[in-house]
# Entry
Amino acid sequence: MDKAISYLRILFHILTLLLIILSLYPGSILGFMLYGDIRLQPQFIKDFLYISSQHLYVYLLVSTLGFFSYLRDRKFKLVVIYFFFLSIILEVVHLVIVERSFQLEDLTGNILGVLIAYTIVLIYKFWRK
# Structure
């Protein structure tokens, strides 16, 4: 395996772990770091339509990184399925976490981010042939 791909995979796994921690923490770690209040969720990017743009961009970034790091691996399809279900499960779990709430806009952003990343990879694979 190429050394660059190896580093890409390590970065992917670290970012995925960070995403899971930030999603499951009861409250907002970023809100605590920025405002000193775990109840405040920072809004870095304005949402559009009925989609959480922050969730879309985070899932787009992490999914793209994961898809490209496993592009030539037998586990590629497993990574695609994993991220699709992770995007759903992490949002649904907010129903039972204190200081968190399920939001359809966030779920839409999660899934759309994964779908766009997958589309980018499919286009890349098509043009590469």
About this structure: The mean pLDDT is 87. The two ends are 21 Å apart (CA to CA). The helical segments are 3-24, 29-35, 53-69, 76-92, 104-128. The chain is about 70% helix and 0% strand.
